[in-house]
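Chapter summary example.
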Amino acid sequence: MKRALVPAPLRRAVLGWFDSRYISRADHRQDVKDALWEVQTLAREVTSLRAEVVELRAQVAGVKLDPARAGRWDDAHRLAQETAVALDGVLRNEVLLWQAVDRATGDTAGIRGTAGRGSGA
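The structure predicted for these 121 residues follows.
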């Protein structure tokens, strides 16, 4: 590598440009320390969560499923689904009904109320 004489203002400008674009070693070391601390904290949290999962699995393993209760849950789920399908049909029929009412009254805008009917009658 060769050395050359560079005027001081130019050297300061170039060094200032480098300093503004790049992180210093001290800042980089601090960032690495902070990242390491975060990783260690997360590792401790994961360890505690794993212990909690093991504990919950042990609790679930001890529970027996009552066939009568399971049957009631299945019936409740089936009834909820049937109710949802029936309600969907009712709402669709209501929409069709109001569309027929709007057509019968001559409401071309398809909007019930004063905006669609009240201007000319």
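To summarize the output: The helical segments are 8-21, 25-61, 67-105, 114-117.
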